[in-house]
Design brief:
With about 300 residues, the protein is α+β, with helices and mostly antiparallel strands. Helix content is about 25%, strand content about 25%. It has a domain of about 220 residues.
Length: about 300
C-alpha cells in the first residue's frame, strides 16, 4: 500500500466537540473524518459515489488514520503509545511531563521509545505552536421567544500549524478520489457549526515522513500501535486483547443525513479502541452500521492502520 499525508490548513477556528457545544478539542478521530467524507461523497456524486468510498475501504484499497497535529509547517506528531516506557530520569517533574504529553514528534519517536527525549522541552514547543482554545457566546433567536445565548468551544490554529491524516491507498485512482473529496470538503468545512463559518481549511498533500514510513504497517514488530480508532468482531478480539495495552473511547452522536428520518436521530453508541492503543497481534477492523431503524445505513469507520512500536 502507498501512503501520503493530507493536511488541514485551517483558515478559521474549528469546533471539535466531545459531547457539549462548549467543548473545543484539538483533534478528531478517523470515524469523524470518514463521516465527513461520506457526506461529501453524497453531495458530489449521490449514492453511487458514497458506495464507491465504502467499497474502497471494505476491499482494503483505502485506509485513513486519525487526525493528528502538525506544527511549524512540517513537524508531524503521532499519538503517544500506550506502552510502558522506561526513562532515565527519576525527577518527578519529568514524570509529570511524560504523563502530560499526548503526542510525540514523529522524528523523535525512537528517542521517546528509548526514554531519551527531552519531554519538558518538547511540551513547551508543542504549547507554543499548537494554538489555543476559546469559548464564543452565540445567540439563538427563536420566533416569539427571548434570545437564548449558548457557548461554542473553538480551537484556533496559528499560521503554519494544523491537522493532518495519513492516507493509505492501493492505486492513484483511490488517491485522486479522496483528493476530490478533500478539495470539496475544504469549502464545506469540518467539525461543528460549519454554517457559522467554522472549520474551513485549505487542503494540501505531502509525503509521509521517513520516521513514520519506516514503521507503518511493518510486519517485523512485536508490538503495533493503532493510528486510528478501531474495533473488530468479538472472535478476533479474544485473541488480541489479553496482551494489549489500550483505552476505549465511547463514540456517539447524531445522524447528519436529512433522509434518514423526519427528526434528528442518534447513532448507536459504540466503544472503540483509542488511537495509541498497542497490540501484539494485528487485526483488520471493520465498518460498523450504527443506524437505529432509519431509512439507510449509517457508517462508523473502525478500520485499522498500524505502526510498529518496538
Amino acid at each position: 500500500m502507498k501512503y501520503c499525508i493530507y493536511k488541514f490548513n485551517f483558515k478559521t477556528a474549528v469546533h471539535i466537540g466531545n459531547g457539549k457545544l462548549s467543548d473545543g478539542e484539538m483533534t478528531f478521530h478517523a470515524d469523524t473524518l470518514f463521516s465527513a467524507l461520506c457526506q461529501e461523497a453524497l453531495q458530489m456524486g449521490g449514492e453511487k459515489m458514497l458506495q464507491e468510498l465504502v467499497e474502497y475501504v471494505e476491499k482494503g484499497q483505502l485506509r485513513i488514520s486519525d487526525c493528528f497535529p502538525f506544527l511549524a509547517k512540517d513537524r508531524y506528531y503521532i499519538p503517544k503509545p500506550m506502552k510502558t516506557i522506561v526513562h532515565d530520569s527519576g525527577n518527578s517533574t519529568d514524570r509529570k511531563a511524560f504523563k502530560k504529553m499526548k503526542y510525540v514528534p514523529a522524528d523523535k519517536f525512537d528517542d521517546y521509545l528509548n526514554g531519551n527525549i527531552d519531554v519538558i522541552k518538547e511540551n513547551e514547543f508543542f504549547a507554543k505552536y499548537a494554538g489555543n482554545y476559546s469559548v464564543k457566546t452565540s445567540a439563538a433567536v427563536p420566533e416569539l421567544e427571548d434570545t437564548k445565548p449558548y457557548p461554542v468551544g473553538m480551537w484556533h490554529f496559528p499560521k503554519d500549524s494544523g491537522l493532518y491524516f495519513i492516507l493509505g491507498y492501493d492505486s492513484d485512482e483511490v488517491n485522486y478520489f479522496v483528493g476530490d473529496l478533500m478539495d470539496s470538503l475544504s469549502y464545506s468545512g469540518i467539525g461543528g457549526k460549519r454554517t457559522a463559518g467554522l472549520g474551513r481549511f485549505e487542503c494540501s498533500v505531502d509525503k509521509l515522513p521517513q520516521a513514520i514510513r519506516q514503521n507503518i504497517d511493518n510486519e517485523a514488530g512485536k508490538y503495533f500501535m493503532a493510528l486510528s480508532v478501531c474495533m473488530d468482531v468479538k472472535g478476533v478480539l479474544d485473541d488480541v486483547v489479553p496482551d494489549a495495552e489500550y483505552l476505549l473511547v465511547k463514540r456517539s452522536g447524531f445522524v447528519a443525513s436529512d433522509r434518514y428520518a423526519q427528526t434528528f436521530q442518534k447513532k448507536e453508541d459504540v466503544y472503540l479502541f483509542r488511537e495509541g492503543s498497542c497490540f501484539s497481534q494485528k487485526f483488520d477492523g471493520e465498518i460498523l452500521d450504527v443506524s437505529c431503524g432509519g431509512n439507510h445505513p449509517v457508517y462508523r469507520y473502525a478500520k485499522t492502520m498500524w505502526m510498529k512500536v518496538d
